[in-house]
Amino acid sequence: MNQESIGEKLLAKFGPDVIRTAVTFRDQVAVTVAKERILDVCKFLKEDPELAFNFLSFVAGVDRYPETPRFEVVYQLYSLKRNHRFRIKALVEESEPGSAVIDSVASIWPTANWHERETAEMFGMTFRNHPDPRKLLLPEDWTCHPLRKDFPLYGTDEDTPDLRSKAGSQGI
Amino acid sequence: MGIERHLNDTVHVTNLEWFVNWARKSSMWPLGFGLACCALEMIATFVSRYDLSRFGMEVARPSPRHADLMIVSGTASKKMLPAILRIYEQMAEPRWVIAMGACACTGGIYKNYAVVQGIDRWLPVDVYIPGCPPRPESLLDGILQLHAKVMKEQSIHNPRVTNIKVAGR
Fold it and tell me: What CATH number is associated with residue A105?
């Protein structure tokens, strides 16, 4: 199926309340999905025999600071069966620290596990019902979120020290 | 004159400090570990074209307890730092450190939150080798500089002390 017909099929199934906007750029359609229904949409994309998106290429985050909603979660999909690709996005707002929450899709595509862990630590989002919500790349004791637009590139001595005290630097 | 005439070439006379230094610099075993792309140049230095064994250094030790020299070859990320320090602490005295490449010297192009801005913030570096990455010739030159430095050490009368307590640990 081509990009437009995938978008139309989603719209016909879920309606404009869930499938909100579709932006076409260089023949690629990116559809914005209501974050409350992200699990339903993903399940449909995977299980519908015509779509059959059985491969999740990646999950990533975007910080659109200072816009509202602030965050985007991007899902790039690929169907090995049908050889077509599609991109969906969900907007996530952070009204107060820690309130950026979206459902984890790791139950649909297990590969989302690590991708969501990285997105979570880098942007400070929470993926609800994630099977293993630890940090992936950053040291365990860091509480900052380096890919946020308002994060200083060089870090700070408090947030990103070379080394914590002996009690803090565990694992070695 | 003196004793050499009587002993011919059977015995050589020198001073003990020179001899100890010579022995140390002639079999300075490096630690076999690499951090980033500089490690590939280090590997090239070890193998036949540049042949580090010409300087008695071909025996890269997998165990820090056998090693004399730590070549910090590449980017030291903050997450890797505790492991590097732990390895250094396990090395026996006397021990030397070479900071190989721009990243190990200063952080290099990685002026950001994730990378240690120069391993000399944490380890006593003996020789700095600039370059991104340095060619094997540069590494060899740095090693020869270190050998020259070792030959000047007062290894008996004023032995070097590197068992510094790493700050913050």
Answer: 3.30.460.80
